[in-house]
Write a sequence for this structure.
DNA sequence: GAGTGGTCTAGACCACTGT
DNA sequence: CAGTGGTCTAGACCACTCC
C-alpha cells in the first residue's frame, strides 16, 4: 500500500468514528508532513483522496475541514401525478396550490433563477429520443434553478419540445412569460396534449469542468443525470428534460405501486 | 487559469471533437511535458483531471487512453411487478421464465458471485427505516453480483429483513439455499407476505476506498446508491436493500403511469 | 503580516507492460 | 530489456483568509 494511501487510511479513522466532528479543522498540511515524516505533496495526495470521497473539504487559505453531511433536496416521482392533477385547474387555483407543494412532501420548492429559450435543430441523440428526423426544429428551454436550502446548490435543466407540437400557443415559446404556474404539463394542456406515462433514466458520473463551474461544486464530485421523457396518450414522446443535479445532496425518490393479488 | 487546467483544456478538445477515438493512446507523459514545456507532475495533474471526468483511462505501464463509452446495465422498476407476478408460480415455472427476463428488457441478467447471510442487530439507521427498536435482530444478506457484460463491473447488495418476519421458513436464513428462483418477493410469499408498494431512493457520490476496491473502479468515479424499501399490504416496511452500482455504466429506468383525464 | 492551502519544478526511484 | 506510468522528495513561490 502506498504511503499516501496509508496516511489517508489513518486520517479516515477518527472522522468515521466521529472523534472529529463535522466542521472540525484538520492539522495543517505541514504539521501532518512533520507528524508522518513525509513531504507536503504526499500529504496533499492523501488529503486529495479524502476530498474525492467527500469526507473532507479543502478551503484555500483556511485549512482542511471535516465535511458537514449534506442536506438533501428530494425529488419524488409522485410529483408527476400531482402536476397532472393541477394542469387543468384555472390559473388562480394553480397559484394557490403552489404553496401546498412544499407541505405535501414534494420538496422541490425552488426559485427560478434564469430561463433561456431558443430554437434549435435536433441532433442525432434527441432525434432518436423523439423519433423524428435529425434537424427537426425543437424548442430548447434552459433553466438554472437555485434551491433555497443550504449554501446554494444549483440544478441545470435542458428541456426540449418539438416546435410543431406547440405552434398552437405562441406564448409557450416566449421566455418572458416565465415562470409558468403549473409547469410543463399545464403548458402542454393548452395545446391539447395529455400525458399518460413518464420515463426517467438515471446515471451518475463525475462532474465535467463546465458542470463543476456552473454548479459551484468542488472538482471530482458526482452529478446525477436524469433524462425525463414524457409520453402522451398515444405513446408518442412529447417532451424531454435533461436534469443535472449535485449527486450527494440530491435524493431521487421513486414509488412503484404493485397490483394486488 | 492554472497551467494544468489550460493543458487539460487543450487535451479535451481533440477527444471531444472525436479526432482522438476511443482506445487511442495519448502521447507519453514525458512527451507532453516537452511539448508544453512543463514538468511531468504538472502534466500528470492535467491528466488526473481528465481521468476524473471520465474522458481518459490511465493504464500503468502502457499509457493514457481515450476511454471507451460505457456499456450500460439497465435496471427498470417494471421488474418489481414482473417479480410479483412470478412470485406465486411453482418452482419449475419460475426457473423457465428466468430466460424471458433478458428478452423483456429487464436486463438484470446477472450471475450471482457470492452470497453471505448473517444475523445482525439493527443500527439506528435501519431501526428508523423499519420502524423498530434499535438492536432488533435482522437477517443481513450480502450479495456480490457480477454482470456478464464488458470487463466486469460489480454490484454490491446488502439486503435486510426483520428476523421475526421470516421465522416461519428456516430455509430463508440458509445461505446455502442460494440462488433462489423468483427472488425476494417469492421468498416473502412463502411466509405469507404480499408486497404492495416499493420505494427507491437514489443518491450518488464518489466511491469510497473500499467500494473502489470491491467494484474494481478507478478512484474518484461515481457510484449510484439505491435504497429500496418494500412495503407489504398493510404499509409496513418488510425488506430493505442497499445497492451500490458503478455510476457511469449503470442506468436506472423508472416508469410512472399517470391517471387518464 | 502571519498562516494556510494551491501550483509548480527537477529529478529519483519503483512497478508494471510488452518484446 | 526498454518504455511507460506511479510514487515521492524538498523546496520555491503564489493566492487566499483572517487578524
Amino acid at each position: 500500500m502506498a504511503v499516501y494511501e496509508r496516511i489517508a487510511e489513518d486520517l479516515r479513522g477518527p472522522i468515521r468514528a466521529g472523534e472529529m466532528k463535522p466542521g472540525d479543522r484538520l492539522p495543517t498540511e505541514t504539521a501532518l508532513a512533520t507528524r508522518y515524516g513525509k513531504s507536503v505533496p504526499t500529504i496533499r495526495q492523501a488529503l486529495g483522496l479524502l476530498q474525492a470521497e467527500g469526507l473532507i473539504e479543502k478551503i484555500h487559505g483556511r485549512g482542511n475541514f471535516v465535511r458537514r453531511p449534506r442536506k438533501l433536496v428530494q425529488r419524488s416521482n409522485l410529483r408527476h401525478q400531482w402536476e397532472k392533477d393541477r394542469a387543468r385547474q384555472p390559473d388562480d387555483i394553480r397559484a394557490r396550490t403552489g404553496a401546498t407543494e412544499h407541505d405535501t412532501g414534494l420538496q422541490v420548492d425552488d426559485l427560478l433563477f434564469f430561463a433561456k429559450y431558443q430554437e434549435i435543430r435536433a441532433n442525432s441523440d434527441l432525434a432518436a429520443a423523439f423519433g423524428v428526423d435529425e434537424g427537426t426544429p425543437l424548442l430548447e428551454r434552459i433553466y438554472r434553478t437555485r434551491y433555497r436550502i443550504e449554501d446554494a446548490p444549483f440544478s441545470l435543466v435542458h428541456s426540449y419540445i418539438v416546435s410543431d407540437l406547440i405552434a398552437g400557443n405562441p406564448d409557450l415559446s416566449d421566455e418572458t412569460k416565465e415562470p409558468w404556474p403549473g409547469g410543463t404539463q399545464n403548458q402542454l394542456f393548452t395545446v391539447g396534449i395529455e400525458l399518460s406515462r413518464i420515463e426517467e433514466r438515471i446515471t451518475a458520473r463525475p462532474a465535467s469542468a463546465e458542470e463543476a463551474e456552473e454548479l459551484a461544486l468542488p472538482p471530482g464530485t458526482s452529478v446525477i443525470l436524469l433524462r425525463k421523457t414524457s409520453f402522451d396518450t398515444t405513446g408518442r414522446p412529447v417532451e424531454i428534460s435533461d436534469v443535472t443535479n449535485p449527486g450527494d445532496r440530491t435524493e431521487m425518490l421513486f414509488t412503484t405501486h404493485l397490483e394486488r393479488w
